[in-house]
Amino acid sequence: MTSPFHFPSLVWDWPIAIDLFLVSVSAGLVALAVMARGWRGARAEASAVMRATLWLAPLTVMLGLLMLALHLTRPWMFWKVSLHYNLSSVLSVRVLLFQLYLPLLLLWLALWFTPTLTGLLQRRLPGALRLSALLMRLQGLRRPLSILLLILALLLGIYNGLLLSALKSYPMLNSPLLPALFLCAALSCGVAVALLASLWLHGDDVAQEQARLRRIEAPLGGVLLALLLLFVLGLAQGDAAKQRALATLVDGGFWSWWLWLGVVGIGIILPLMLRLVTRGSLRLRILLGSGITLCGLLLLHLFILYAGQLTVV
Predict the structure, then answer these.
(1) Has the keyword Membrane been applied to this entry (predicted)?
(2) What is the number of other CB atoms lying within 10 angstroms of the CB of residue 265?
(3) pLDDT reported for residue 127
(4) Phi first, then psi: what are they for 3, rounded to 5°?
């Protein structure tokens, strides 16, 4: 029996969509955190972006890796993918990026949060204070590490799209716009999560950071909407296979409603319209806008994965 979530041509299902979404959150947060260092100088502990990155960026990428491993036919063999690289495989290159990204991210966070880490070690593990001394000697690496980590985060966001566009037998996924679409989605995820994190912090610095994030939020939503429309237009201008893929987006069926009502209407346009509301609590408006944006971005990842596999060449 076929359904929107179960059909003969389906190869990658919801765990991969969740993996892509979690990696987007991590990559978007890290890219935003590196750029936010230019806003805030060295006070990482007071930054909503940095605090969200500290807790969520490593966790989400590790959960994404776990989802990817569990989706394999033999999950216990994932270590082989991690040790034997095939640079002609986009999946293998993505795993390599993970292995470079995660340890560098942890080191970068440790360097920015060295005072906090030192205080924690003094209270809990006095014998490990040599680690703090080592981190103090490595403080000069923060800038080069920031540049390298920004490149890796952007590559991870782009590679989400490259991973799917490499599936040549699916005309909807075989689009050069997917990497840009996923990169924009990753940055939007980062902004939404950072705004939600800012609701739990207080102070003038947080208010300034919140204002900067809100100024980025609307243009990113506009770019994401434009990329989605260009993606649909690209299908309309394509060959017969792409025309058949386009039909699933405009035929009034399940995935058509999912795209236009769920992703575009609720996930992109509604948060943009909420920004026009100036009355009421700012906290409530941020909570609603950012929460709806994250839900819309999750819907986008599910849509691209499932609807993209409906049509085969």
Answers:
(1) yes
(2) 13
(3) 65
(4) -150, 175
- Give the integer Cα–Cα distance in Å for 225 and 243: 21
Residue 240, amino acid: A
pLDDT tens for each residue of 5-37:
888 888 888 999 999 999 999 999 999 999 887
CA angle 289, 150, 68 (to 5 degrees): 75
Sign of the Cα pseudo-torsion (152, 113, 19, 243, in order): negative
Backbone angles phi, psi at 305, to 5 degrees: -70, -50
Residue 187 has pLDDT above 50, yes or no: yes
Contact 31, 187 (CB under 8 A): yes
Return the bridge partners of 3, or none.
Answer: 6
Q: Which helix (H) or strand (E) holds 189?
A: helix 178-198
Q: What is the pTM of this model?
A: 0.91
pLDDT of residue 270: 95
Query: In whole angstroms, what is the distance from residue 169 CA to residue 165 CA?
Result: 10
Q: What domains can you pick out in the chain, each with its CATH number?
A: 14-308 (1.20.1630.10)
